[in-house]
Design goal:
This protein has about 130 residues and is α+β, with helices and mostly antiparallel strands. The protein has 2 domains: about 90 residues, Flavocytochrome B2, Chain A, domain 1 (Roll), CATH 3.10.120; about 35 residues. It is about 45% helix and about 15% strand. The protein is elongated, with a radius of gyration of 19 Å.
Length: about 130
């Protein structure tokens, strides 16, 4: 960690939850994304939804590109003291975390089903017109 970066207490990070003052925690690192809020492709609301908690799951679930990940160091300001993060806000991203894996699997199944339903509707419309 660079000398000008510090370790933050969770409650201090959580206070930065506004469009004009926004910090997020991803993989235990704290990012001041205030200057990025207007540029975020998903809108500022998406980022604001990840404040006041460990935003790792939200970030990973969004399927960010390599380009998005390359921007992260620009906004990095330090680490969060994991001992200050309330248990309900912790995200365990380890390989053995079945809750995360099953949630991702469930969401992937839902996405596939939504895609299949859309294809079926398209096929039905095409069949009716033919």
């Amino acid at each position: 960690m660079a000398p000008n970066h510090k370790t933050f207490v969770f409650n201090d990070v959580a206070k930065h939850n506004k469009t004009k003052d926004c910090w997020v925690i991803i993989h235990g690192k704290v990012y001041d994304v205030t200057s990025f809020m207007e540029d975020h492709p998903g809108g500022s609301e998406v980022i604001l939804a990840s404040t006041g908690k460990d935003g790792t799951f939200d970030f990973e679930n969004a399927g960010h590109s390599d380009e998005a990940r390359e921007l992260m160091p620009k906004y990095y300001i330090g680490e969060v003291d994991q001992s200050t993060v309330p248990a309900k806000h912790l995200v365990d991203m380890s390989a053995g975390n079945t809750a995360y894996t099953s949630e991702m699997s469930r969401q992937n199944v839902i996405r596939i089903l939504q895609f299949m339903v859309a294809i079926m509707i398209f096929g039905l419309v095409y069949a009716v017109k033919a």
